[in-house]
UniProtKB/TrEMBL annotation:
Domain Stress-response A/B barrel per the UniProt entry, residue ranges: 3-98
InterPro entries for the chain: Dabb, Dimeric_a/b-barrel
Top-level taxon of origin: Eukaryota
Any one Pfam family match given in the protein's UniProt record, by short name: Dabb
Gene3D superfamilies named in the record: 3.30.70.100
Organism of this sequence: Pelagomonas calceolata
Protein's name in the database: Stress-response A/B barrel domain-containing protein
Amino acid sequence: MTLTHVVLLQWKPGTPESVVEPGLKKLGQIPVTETYILSYRIGKDDSEFGRRNMTHDVAIVAEFATEDDYRRYTKARNHLDAFGLLKPHLMRRHAVQTCAMMEWATPCSQRTPPSNTRVFAALVCGVALGRLLARR
């Protein structure tokens, strides 16, 4: 079973990139220190529209082998430090944790992970995130 964690962040209006960069850099250190993470991607919105406050500013997609690994991540020092740096600038945070696209009634431990988590993330987060991940 693979657990996928998808987070979308939107900054408060007028937030300059310079004030969120330290928190984003701290997030970027997480896969180095937390080696149990299977996959970890961070990306800024690069939609062609470029309209602030129309969509989210940052997307994070992480994959974990087990729910215990995900819980461990939520308590990791770098994760907590990064969130502390970013929280004052957040207008919105949306997150979803999932094990599969289908078979909703089946327990996570018995589900078959999706064959393409990028497709799943695009469905959950919309076209903007899908475009972002397709370039990675």
